[in-house]
Amino acid sequence: MTLGYLNLVLHAHLPYVRHPEREDRIEERWLFEALTETYIPLLQVFHGLLDDGVDFRVTMSLSPPLISMLADELLQTRYRRHMANLLALCESEQTRTADDPARRSLAKEYQRRFEQVVQFFEDYSGNILPAFAQLHQAGKLELITSAATHAFLPYLRTQAAIEAQIATAVDCFITHLGFRPKGIWLPECAYDARVEASLQRHGIRYFFTDTHGLTSATPAPVFGTFAPVVTPSGLAAFARDEESSRQVWSSTEGYPGDYDYREYYRDIGFDLPEQDLQPFAHKEGIRLNTGIKYYRITGQTGEKALYDFHLAREKAATHAGNFLFNRTQQVAYAKSRMGRLPVVTAPYDAELFGHWWYEGPIFLDMLFRKMHYDQTEIKSITPSEYLDMYGDFQLATLDFSTWGRGGYGDVWLQGDNDWIYPALHDCELQMTRLADAYVHPSSLVRRALNQAARELMLAESSDFAFIMDSKTTVDYAVERTKQHVNRFRHLCSMLDQRDIDVSYVSDAEALSPIFPNLDYRCFQSNPQHAADLPDRDVVRVLLLSWEFPPMTVGGLARHVYDLSRHLVEQGCEVHVVTTAVDGYPLDEIVEGVHVHRVRVAQPDGGEFIHFVLQLNLAMLARCRQMIEVEGYQFNVIHAHDWLVGEVACLLKQHYGIPLIATIHATEHGRNHGISTDVQRHIHHIEWRLTYEASEVIVCSTYMLHELMDVFALPGEKVHVIPNGVDRRLLESAKGHRTPDDVCEERPIILFIGRLVREKGVHVLLDAASDILQDVPDARVVILGQGPMQQALRDQSERLGLGHCVEFWGFVDDDTRNDLFHRARVAVFPSLYEPFGIVALEAMAAGVPVVVSDVGGLCDIVRHEHNGLKAYAGDAASLSCQIKRLLFDPNLSHSLSTVAEQELSRFDWRRIAEHTIQVYGCVVVKASTVEAPTA
């Protein structure tokens, strides 16, 4: 029987310490140490629990500076170098301690652990943010945000500055993780009532306070800290439980002080002569932590015993059991007095686990395993899950509080750091003045305004005031504060004088590139009316496409489906108008996407042009109803291909809604020219659509050049945004089987696509004759339908291939996925291919690919790197490349492994983000009235 819940909260944050100007800044090692000792070890624990089927819940805040640094390619490169040097030091230590078996054994174990960290890092191509997101999507890790630069919010002067911190934080979170955070970690748990308006505006549901922040509320909470309260604004506040905190944090009572645990302050970086620390040592001889520590705490004296990994692990297991026992006693006591299940909120700095308390990740691993396997009376839970359990939380008003020294704000405002606030407050007022003055600035002015906002927000970081109080790296904190304030003032002066130095702006952007999406207008005095460009969470998109699942003719349906749902994940409101399908409602919501279907008689042969006309008329009527009767106000129209061109242009002209067109292919490209009246008609509609559109999107550089040549489009109007692939959609359904005649022993050569001439299936059939001479048991499986189907069957019979070439027609996703996983090679021999999304799907499924060296496939496949290429239309070349894969399993494995690793380029979250940026361009263009420019 469950008696209550544990709400474990980890706050992960580091100040923004990216220094491109120097490669040896000590501060960047703060990030590298945290990656090595905290973030990756925690992810290893959580993913291990997930893989083992252990049920657990953790809430973790990832601050925007930390998110930005984890995603930064420069810092990823420097971390690789840092770890290479550290592993070299481990090798050196094993040589140095060759005559000391105990220390040599410790050095070897450190090397093993560091190698596992590096492997995990590389498994995610250097960006571990998706590893966090996977745990969130699995329902085990609830990820939340913090303020943009971890500013001490109560000490900001203006509401606009608070709004900027929250708005930018939410934008950063959505950009990198793909969904909206439900909660926030207020920096330093610093609360005052002014923060609530911005939290509520950006969809935040809950936050955390220190114990006294709740117990001093009015009226006093009847359940103490064992349940959240709700503020008058409707936000839930969870408070820290003192007892669970004391057991972990306390320097006298806490677990980390146990004598069997690793001694943090005895590192070989300080113990050994400098010459023994190469190549890890700092160039200037500064002593630094290496993470290699040979001693355990032992006692209060200077004499230390050698560390024992196994003994420390056993102690962590003991402490996990003790922690679990104590929490169970707490909730049992609280439940008897509450009449509902209590929750113990236990928040900690994430860096405690692993960095300061080396055994912390092991402790958490043991804690959740004991909770799961021992079927204890306490379970872990996230704040969102607990809030969903009850609907009658107590209403209370909270006062100012923090979790700092004394419970209030003197850490961040005392004699050593009070000088920063007059400067920051003056900068706030200047930033709001500029934001209000420039409504429609030029591109250069906008860059200067955005960079001024970055500099101000970085100067507001609470870390610098904290460092000045703690007297650690004070010079660095003072230097950083002054640098950002001075840069802000210089940018402000240039803006006021209408004399902007482009090189200065560029240099400032390069030094502090955090928050590339930052919009200075979040500093305007009225944030509710701050920007002409709607915030990404309220952008309303009218998306027109004749295909949308289950109406699937080609790759367009999959593209629109994936794009639309990922736009929704990033806060857009998307309405897709498409063709009706029997058995499906005319209006429904599919994964957050509003789908509106219109009935049109299906085309038959030469009536296709007439069908398209009727489709456009039906779409126009439905869209007019949505706008004029149902009251929808759309910010942008997004039209996909010529079939919806007429309705898109009419809606743009009649309602003045900005239009974007995505061109997936052209009639000129499909037919290698224009020769018939029907082709001329389609070609004209395509030209008109690209002409009327404010911006045009294509999926490959090949298509960019084709549109520039065929329609004389200026290059700056065309944006290359690739198609994407969602690996989750390629997982085979459990228990599903393809038809009985599928035989896994015979090598399968797989083609998937429309059976039209430009897909080159006839070339594959010609190549099959040669392949079968060397691989007589091979099977060519062709999935898809189209007008060439009978001609291809006839060709197969003429070539005597009827026994090995199989036309399966249209198949469901489960069958397709199973074939992907069974195929030895996937072949896409296109003569014309704007992109080739099915090649991406094959790569995601782990199938090696052979493609024609044509069109957008060139953007996807690099020959002998992640696939093989054949000359377009050349059966001999195609046969040669297919046989290479059939005869060389090592080559197949190498190519498919690299292909899978590089699929992050085609991640739908990134694609949706880039698409939203294009939306922003057209909305701004539609309303631009230039302010005075420099």
Automatic annotation (TrEMBL):
It holds the Pfam family BE_C. It comes from the Bacteria. Keywords: Carbohydrate metabolism. Residues 744-900 form the Glycosyl transferase family domain. Residues 8-389 form the Glycoside hydrolase family 57 N-terminal domain. Residues 424-523 form the 1,4-alpha-glucan branching enzyme C-terminal domain. Residues 553-727 form the Glycosyltransferase subfamily 4-like N-terminal domain. The keyword Transcription regulation does not apply. The keyword Repeat does not apply. InterPro entries: 57_glycoside_trans_central (IPR037090), BE_C (IPR015293), Branching_enz_MT3115-like (IPR040042), Glyco_hydro/deAcase_b/a-brl (IPR011330), Glyco_hydro_38_N_sf (IPR027291), Glyco_hydro_57/38_cen_sf (IPR028995), Glyco_hydro_57_N (IPR004300), Glyco_trans_1 (IPR001296). Belongs to the glycosyl hydrolase 57 family. PANTHER family: 1,4-ALPHA-GLUCAN BRANCHING ENZYME RV3031-RELATED, 1,4-ALPHA-GLUCAN BRANCHING ENZYME TK1436. This is DUF1957 domain-containing protein. It comes from Alicyclobacillus fastidiosus. The lineage of its organism: Bacteria, Bacillati, Bacillota, Bacilli, Bacillales.
